[in-house]
Amino acid sequence: ETKPRIPVLWLHGLECTCCSESFIRSAHPLAKDVILSMISLDYDDTIMAAAGEQAEAIIEETIQKYDGNYILAVEGNAPLNEDGMYCIIGGKPFVEQLRHAADHAKAIVSWGSCASWGCVQAARPNPTRATPTHMVPGIADKPIIKVPGCPPISEVMTAVITYILTFEKLPDLDRQGRPKMFYSQRIHDKCYRRPHFDAGQFVESFDDEGARKGYCLYKVGCKGPTTYNACSTVRWNGGLSFPIQAGHPCIGCSEDGFWDKGSFYDRL
Ligand code: SF4
Ligand code: SF4
Ligand code: F3S
């Protein structure tokens, strides 16, 4: 109650906006509490009421008022081909807006696999040269927290913000730049179907008897053994379920390059 709300600029490059869709569904804490009581979301072009020049002016106001003290949240990535013309915000290439906002930020949060790794827009042959935040040439040398996933789990997103506000420091990151508290274990390590894997009980094809019995999905392409994310512990929709619980193999959506690493339904 006594702490000032930390200013956040939330930019959007090439993306599908489902990272925002995930964020607004956080149950613990509620997204409304994050936005109304914890952060000052000064700019977010997909959910803000302002539009046009009025909206763009807010970026400059925030930069001048809170130089070096705001968090830059990035959803989506920057296409570099054709001088950035594949993503134009307020009449300018997104990459320029990104570099400018990064220059004055305290730290950067790369939401989702688009901002962290490139994701489907960067799939071969990557015609727009979609480039994740940390690989944008000329991006300021600021701490970058990657929160990958397509999208990331809502409670993981809000927990990262809550951690920064509560402890007034950035969370510990692994060598790929992801918060250790959510990305240090594989889906496979805590998967409730793991006893079936260990017992050699596998789904051989979708809708076979093994599928109906809830056997392990490894043979129909599950990437859980090589995917670092919190889905099998935190789960989705307020802890209700996750892809494997719904009967679908993990496609490794939080891993770098998952979109180009062969068929989602092939074995590893
Ligand atoms: Fe959408 Fe996935 Fe990119 Fe998030 S990471 S904006 S969910 S494509
Ligand atoms: Fe591992 Fe996937 Fe099988 Fe779960 S379903 S035990 S994550 S291979
Ligand atoms: Fe993505 Fe696999 Fe979780 S597909 S949502 S990392 S179970």
From TrEMBL:
Molecular function as annotated in GO: 3 iron, 4 sulfur cluster binding; 4 iron, 4 sulfur cluster binding; electron transfer activity; ferredoxin hydrogenase activity; hydrogenase (acceptor) activity; metal ion binding
Record has Nucleotide-binding as a keyword: no
Major subcellular location class: membrane
UniProt: [3Fe-4S] cluster binding residues: 231, 250, 253
Segments forming domain Cytochrome-c3 hydrogenase C-terminal: 183-264
Assembly information from the UniProt record: Heterodimer of a large and a small subunit.
Protein name: hydrogenase (acceptor)
Source lineage: Bacteria, Pseudomonadati, Pseudomonadota, Alphaproteobacteria, Hyphomicrobiales
Covered residues, full protein: 45 to 312 of 358
